[in-house]
Amino acid sequence: MAAKKKFYAIAVGAKPGIYDNWPEANAQVRGFPGARYKGFPTRREAEGWLEKPQDGRKAGAGSKPAKKPGSTAADPAPKPGEVSIYTDGGARFNPGPGGYGIVQICNGETTERCGGYRHTTNNRMELMGCIVALRELEYRDKPVTVYCDSQYVVNGINKGWARAWRKRGWLKSTGEPAFNPDLWGELLDLIEGLDVTFKWVRGHAGHPQNERCDELVAACWAKKNLPVDTGYKNPDS
After folding, report:
1. Which candidate in 98, 101, 214, 229 is catalytic?
2. Cβ(122)–Cβ(99) under 8 Å?
């Protein structure tokens, strides 16, 4: 019996790296022009391919025809009367050096923030971007919209996954531990009392703020002497 593919290496996609489940991997390549990815039974094989990727193969069912660049699930243009926050995060090689980037626009004023860690994951940095943005939010009396290209983050909030995990003591419905409980817990605490909406946007689709966040991510993970991500524990998170 052939070994089941468990690890998915994405060389070209919204968030290149290695993923241990197809739904999350599919979210990075679905509709992404020129996506290159492949599935492997072990992380070592996936890492080896990612170092020198050959032609990508369909790693599983569910891919849709590529959409034209610029298509999104939400209109990310800044809205008058609200705080528009754009976040991105990623880790080189996932896990590896990582960073997050934030662009905030309110009343025509733009501010930027970024940071990084020496060894972390894509998902942790996506969460950290949202956390830092809301932790340092100045305009708490205005509606806030967070635009994020991570379905893991947006669905975790909008579909109630994170609240359910916390209610079960940070366990999934299967009884397995939920990843990144430290960051999910802080994010849930931060959104309490805020008029905040999370919206997903397609990454690398030509949106200025999203592209700028991506630049901030790359600049931060390339810095020397990055701090330790003390909450990072599982290499597959």
Report:
1. 214
2. no
